[in-house]
Amino acid sequence: MPRSKKIAAVEKILGNKTGAERKDAAKKFVEEMFARTIFTDFDKVLELYDKSEAEIKALNDPLIQFAAELEKENKEIQDRYDGFVGAVYKLRPQWIQGLSEWKKGNLYPDANGTIRFTYGYVKGYSPRDAVTYHWITGLNGVIEKDTGEEPFDNPKGLTELFNNKDYGRFVDKTMNDVPVNFLHTTDTSGGNSGSPVLNGKGEIIGVIFDGNYEAMTNDFVYDPDLTRSISVDIRYVLFITEKFGKAANVMKELQIQQ
């Protein structure tokens, strides 16, 4: 990150270190912090609710101290954000009035702070002549895009799982691959990201996280030929959790039925 964008509380710890030395310093700081903090002890954390601010500061807990340093910077960021939001709010009434006149009626809200339900079909699309996007992608495509540099820098463990075809129970036999993302015709908007996607039986099949490039106008006009939501396939979520993340405890807690 450019120096003007770096987090002061972090730079205070890591200084001018670079490369491997910087990573080692960060790792050492985190390990020492968690070795000393009370936040690994549930009962001690509960006791904080009965302490005053002065008593909490007197604990000299490294995690609390680090959070306090971060909060100083967060306050400055929040002040700048509040100024921006205030300026936008002056323009928002004109914006809504224009949309209402154009729509000739009421507008439905975005998904932030509201409960929305929408339905559609899993379906690909063709945005222009001789170009067709299939409705599903697989792990093979993730590996194909790997360049070793952000944003396509795959973790070594993921590549090893692919090379060994170690897919476990998450392979789709029709694809002979692990499903990654899929497209569907649902009408979604800002705030829908993270919402569960259910099939006709009420089973979770994915989590929405984006929309396609050609449907950027979807907040204004829904085009059934082009509008597509993009969801990560729940099998990929579970594959990453179990095979890559080795989080057997999480899988056990979820009680996955397949």
Overview of this structure, please?
By secondary structure, the protein is of the alpha+beta class. The chain folds into two domains: 3-77, no CATH class; 125-254, Beta Barrel (Thrombin, subunit H). Helix content is 43%, strand content 12%. It has helices spanning 8-14, 19-36, 42-47, 53-58, 62-103, 139-144, 156-163, 234-244, 248-254, and strands at 125-128, 131-133, 136-138, 179-184, 196-198, 204-211, 229-233. A five-stranded antiparallel sheet has the order 3-4-7-6-5. It is globular. The chain starts with 7 loop residues before the first helix and ends with a helix.
How would you summarize this macromolecular structure in one to three sentences?
The protein is an alpha+beta fold.
Oligomerization category of the chains in this entry: single chain
- Structural class given helices, strands, pairing? alpha+beta
So what's the CATH class of the largest domain? Mainly Beta
Poorly predicted ranges: none
- Give me the CATH fold name of the largest domain: Thrombin, subunit H
Rounded mean pLDDT is 91
Order of helices and strands: HHHHHEEEHHEEEEHH
Our Rg estimate from Cα atoms comes to: 24 Å
User: How many distinct helices?
Assistant: 9
Do you know the CATH architecture of the largest domain? Beta Barrel
Strand order of the largest sheet: 3-4-7-6-5
Q: Please state the overall shape, judged from the principal axes of the Cα atoms.
A: globular
Main sheet specs: 5 strands, antiparallel
The number of domains: 2
Q: Give the distance, in angstroms, between the N- and C-terminal Cα atoms.
A: 43 Å
Helix content: 40-55%
Strand percentage, roughly? Answer: 5-15%
Care to count the β-strands? 7
